Amino acid sequence: MDLQHFLNHNPESLAQYAQTVQQTQKLIQDCLSQQERVFSGLSPATLSEFLTQKILPEQGIPTQQVLQEAVEAIFSHSIAVHHPDCVAHLHCPVLIPSLAAEMLISAFNQSMDSWDQSGAATLLEQNLINFMCQLYGYDANADGTLTSGGTQSNFMAFMLARDYALQQRGFTSQLHGLPNLAGRFRILCSEVAHFSVQQSAAILGLGMNAVVRVKVDKNYRLCSCLLYTS
Ligand SMILES: Cc1ncc(COP(=O)(O)O)c(C=O)c1O
After folding, report:
1. How far is the CA of 193 from the centre of ligand 1 (A)?
2. Mean pLDDT of all residues belonging to the chain
3. What's the gap in Å between 1 CA and the centre of ligand 1?
4. Distance from the alpha carbon of residue 196 to the mean position of ligand 1, in angstroms
5. Which of 4, 42, 168, 178: disulfide with 182, CB 3.0–4.6 Å?
6. CA–CA distance, 106 with 125 (Å, rounded to integer)
7. Which residue ranges make up each domain of the chain?
8. When comparing pLDDT for 52 and 202, which is higher?
9. What contacts 24+ positions apart, CB below 8 Å, involve 188-194?
10. Residue 155 has what pLDDT?
């Protein structure tokens, strides 16, 4: 692969970057302006016929052609999250400044898992977490981490709670694994809680049966006295 395909300080690379970004931006604008409905309406069977390009072709294809094909086969048959008829399950219309942020993030490609791989970005992440801890009224011992979404957040929360409960009883799961005692741990959650609660319990070695679902009232508030027995 030619070196100019990698983003760097050389004029050829910078010119290719500018050209590719402009072409991509134009394709996105064209695609969005043509999306008149929330979805094109194609059935899964018809749509899969559109997706005939090889995932990994033997020969490389010019970036512009890949982008064009991606728009035709994929993005013009995506859900239009910005459309007034689209009711979001989770994801909403995109904020334009966040698109600028995504460009910066992907162009500079920092890795925050250690300071020597990012410099300022590691400190920024820590500052953000400190700020959030303060915002929620936690003391100076508080810490945190950014996760990819709800499933990972639930998993992290249960792992920390499990390890804290074990530590209080003289066990360190990283050293000892799970003692018999862990078989008595229970997670109480609403009967309408997301299935990632059960999933996390399974992965954390507590088992799905450790999850006790608590009934909710008509406003989905936990009813403290009404527990399911199974
Ligand atoms: C309450 C709740 N928790 C967790 C999740 C899972 O989130 P994610 O898809 O970000 O892992 C969802 C997603 O629907 C949710 O509604």
Report:
1. 9
2. 91
3. 39
4. 7
5. 178
6. 16
7. 3-108, 117-146, 150-227
8. 202
9. 188/212, 188/214, 188/227, 189/213, 189/214, 190/214, 190/216, 190/220, 190/222, 191/215, 191/216, 191/228, 192/216, 192/220, 194/150, 194/151, 194/154
10. 97
Distance (angstroms) between ligand 1 centre and the Cα of 136 equals 21
Residues contacting 52, CB < 8 A, separation 6+: 73
What is the percentage of the chain residues whose pLDDT exceeds 90? 74
pLDDT digits (tens, 9 = 90+) for 156-201: 999 999 999 999 999 999 998 999 999 999 999 999 999 999 999 9
Specify the residue with its C-alpha closest to ligand 1, atom 7.
150
How sure is the predictor about 57, in pLDDT bands with cuts at 50, 70 and 90?
confident
What CATH number belongs to 3-108? 1.20.1650.10
Nearest CA to ligand 1 atom 12: 150
Ligand 1 atom 4: residue of nearest CA = 150
User: Looking at the predicted structure, is the pLDDT value of residue 52 above 80?
Assistant: no
150 lines ligand 1 (CB under 6 A): yes
pLDDT digits (tens, 9 = 90+) for 100-147: 999 999 999 999 888 899 999 999 999 999 999 999 999 999 999 999
